[in-house]
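Figure S4 source data
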Amino acid sequence: MSALSGMTALLSLHRSLTLQSRFMPVAAQLTSTYLARRLCSSTKTNDEPKLPGIENESLLENLNLMGVDVRKAQERQPGVFRRAFTNEQGVYQFLQGKGASRKVIAGIISRYPRAITRSIAHLEQRWDLWRNIFKTDEEIVSILDRSPESFFRSSDNVNLEKNIAFLTSLGLSTKDLHRMLATAPRTFSNRLELNRQMVEFLEDICSELGGKNPPLFAKNIISRNLYILIKSTKRVRTNMNILRASLKLSDAELLVLFQGPGAEILDLSNEYLKRNLNCLELKMVALGCQKADMNKLIISYPLVLYIGPDTLSSKLDCLLQGGITIKQIIEKPKVLDYSTQNIKGRLEQLHKVGYDFQRNGINILDSSKKRFDAKLEKLAAFPE
């Protein structure tokens, strides 16, 4: 009871200080309330006292002053609001010092309120580790703005440091690590043993298929598929077996596929991959294609299996209705990279200038907007 009374008195002091400074600048107001608060420890968050069934009113007032969407934050991680001690002022000043705007900071805490349970020492150490990969604070702030969980989710900086060292030892470039941390940050919060297990699994696959350089095989797959390390070895092996059974390739051909463009589909769910394979086969048969045609399409453009059946069918129908043959699509499958709307718009523009796909091919459809517009302008000026 005495501990609870003391805690209640402390929170009353918080509220008093906050209300007295209502019209002061945000930083000054937060500093006032901060003096009456203890900072939490980032390494003992589970042991910290929580208020019995009530929310920390002082915390709510501080977050409102910072522009945080409190309702969203409460919905996402309600437990944070029952903590007796948090570090919102410290986190605010830390991020502000790294160049984050008030709006960005508010957005980070709104979407991942657990950020305010981290200590300054923890944040400084983690930031330094990230700076081993990124060149500027601005890049890190940009990632936190998009995905605050990537930085604040894990409190284990030692594990992060070990993972960076391990992934670097594989021969992954700084650019690879940059992309991985930006798009698949969970890789770095994985236990080191999990990442090592996947790498060893990929090396074993290489040996099973008669490959001569397992470490390079693993590195190539990871470089092409940044999500592979956060998937299970069971999922990846099953996908490899599905592709092996469907494509009927030799071990040597599978080696090339898996460490080449095929690496990009190894992280798909097994059911999704099987469904897309079946739907693609049905569509190709309906278009008068042979099994060999489907295999050629998949081997040259494995990402065709990433596209949902309805979307793929829509793209193929759009191209075919625009005067392009299925043979041309199989030869130049990257036209399927573009949205149906984009494809339809380009076809309409090309038809207006009398473009002949049978004589000139379809490469023009697989070009950047700048190059496409320049070619279109030229065709309009000098019709063929």
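Figure S5 source data
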Amino acid sequence: MEKVVIVTGANSGIGLALCERLLTEDKSLRLCLACRNMQRAEAARSALLTSHADARVDLLQLDVGSVQSVLTAAQEVKARYSRVDFLYLNAGIMPNPQVDVKAFFKGLFSSNVVNMFATGEGLLTQQDRLNSDGLQEVFATNLFGHFLLIRELEPLLCQASHSSRVVWTSSSNARRSAFSMDDMQHRNGTEPYSSSKYASDMLSVALNRHKNSLGLFSSVICPGLVMTNLTYGILPSFFWTLIMPIMWLVRIFTNTFTLTPHNGAEALHWLFLQGPESLDPRAKYHSLTSGLGTNYTHPRQMDIDEETSELLFSKLLELEKEVRRKLSERNSDNEAQ
């Protein structure tokens, strides 16, 4: 039976590179590009069909930062498919990144340069905002929208006849110190991206605890340092022109500088080939590239405790109820008008 694979944020970067690798690996799969911008999604589909003429590539309009968009897209998925084998949760945003220029140049010529580029620790802050649902935009896009999508697709993901996989694109920037359970949406902080990625790591652990018995297995990957549209938005273009030769040189000595989307998608592709029973639910699978350009995947234990991940799961369920209620009231008001 054909595998059904859905990839969010599939129109560029790591998501598009993953789609290319999956079609090369398995020509019979049914691939669905779930994207916010349909014009870019169509361009991505055309590019994939250029190299895989017989591939079956569907498009799905999905803005994971919008509750209504997630619910509408989920209904469309349930109408199209009878099951989902892989759900790659790759879409994400880092809005208005601000760089501490002094810290950047200080770190550039220090022994901490590799860690600085790999994690952004002490270097990056972001300016978040509320979206139309009253949620923090980064939290909604990077975490809650994907959580809601999983919840909506449970009838297709949790079936006795087969196992399904959820795979989160996380980051080395996911740090416990950036996340607070008292401020789950990171309304009062300056590192919403790091907070949201650490929360997705915790949620993956909780999903495995709650859903493995139902046939759903969750994994987390880190793509390494990859040059994508998100990355290029952090610094002015002339900065990248200056430092890219340095980064390619540093890559000889560190395996976390994957740099290209193809290399960054290594762990995502590797997980596609693994059986769920062989995976560690508490590990983050890292895409790595050797100095000679060889790609490989390596697991590393995540800094997560069961109690905190369980609390996050419970709070997300509570928020889901609240958001659904508000959406229902809003739709009722619109109908009354």
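The beta strands are 4-8, 30-35, 56-61, 86-89, 98-99, 124-125, 164-169, 216-222, 283-289, 295-301. The two ends are 48 Å apart (CA to CA).
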